[in-house]
Specification:
The protein has about 200 residues and is α/β, with parallel strands linked by helices. It is built from 7 helices and 5 strands, in the order E-E-H-E-H-H-E-E-H-H-H-H. Strand 1 and strand 2 form a beta hairpin.
Length: about 200
C-alpha cells in the first residue's frame, strides 16, 4: 500500500435500508493514527458507538482528525438508483478530504473510474471497516448520525418502528407497510416497497 502521510477512510450506512437516507462518511487522519475502542460499527453496541463518538468529535474539534458526511435522500435514491447515489456520496467525501499526501481507503469493492477522481490515490478493500482505524471511525460516525436521524423521524412516522429497525426491512416494518402503506421516506424503487404501494 502506498506510503502517505494521511489516510482517508470512507464507509457507508443505509444502502440496504428500505426507508430513510443513505449516509457516507470520510475520516482523514495521520497514517499511524488510532483510537482505543475503535471497531467496525456493526460490531459495537449502540451504547458503545455513542460513547466512541464523543472522543472522535473532540479530535475533530482539536483538528487532529477531520471528517466529511455525504447524505443522499430516499427520493434521490429512487431517482438515480442506489449505485449512482452511493458512488456520488463516496466521491463527495473524496473531494472534500483529499490532498496529494493522502491515501483513500474505501470499504467494499466499488470502482470510481470516470468520476473525476482518477488522479486520487485510493484503494477499495473488502472489510476495511474491520482493518483500518479511519474506516472504523467513519463507520461509527455514519451509523450514529443515521440512527439518530431515523430515531427522530420515528416521531413523525411512528407506525414503522424506526426506533428499533432504523429503516431496515424487519418483519414488523414490512407488516406496518402492508397495513399503512409506505411513508414519504420509504424507497419506492426498492422491493418489497415497490410492490406494496397502494
Amino acid at each position: 500500500m502506498l506510503d502517505k502521510s494521511f489516510t482517508i477512510g470512507v464507509d457507508e450506512v443505509g444502502t440496504g435500508c428500505i426507508a430513510g437516507p443513505l449516509v457516507v462518511v470520510g475520516v482523514r487522519a495521520p497514517k499511524d493514527w488510532s483510537l482505543a475502542g475503535l471497531n467496525d460499527s456493526k460490531k459495537l453496541s449502540a451504547k458503545r458507538r455513542d460513547a466512541m463518538l464523543l472522543p472522535l468529535m473532540k479530535l475533530v474539534k482539536s483538528q487532529e482528525i477531520s471528517y466529511h458526511l455525504a447524505e443522499r435522500s430516499n427520493e434521490y435514491i429512487d431517482e438515480v438508483g442506489v449505485a449512482v447515489a452511493l458512488k456520488e456520496a463516496y466521491v463527495e467525501c473524496f473531494r472534500a478530504l483529499y490532498t496529494p499526501d493522502s491515501l483513500i481507503i474505501s470499504d467494499g469493492i466499488l470502482k470510481f473510474d470516470n468520476l473525476g477522481v482518477d488522479g486520487y490515490d485510493k484503494v477499495s478493500v473488502i472489510k476495511a471497516d474491520a482493518k483500518y482505524p479511519t474506516v472504523m471511525a467513519a463507520s461509527i460516525i455514519a451509523k450514529v448520525y443515521r440512527d439518530d436521524k431515523m430515531h427522530a423521524l420515528h416521531h413523525t412516522y411512528p407506525n414503522y418502528e424506526w426506533l428499533s429497525n432504523v429503516g431496515y426491512g424487519s418483519k414488523s416494518h414490512l407488516a406496518a407497510i402492508e397495513k399503512y402503506g409506505p411513508s414519504p421516506l420509504h424507497r419506492y424503487s426498492y422491493e418489497p416497497v415497490k410492490s406494496m404501494r397502494k
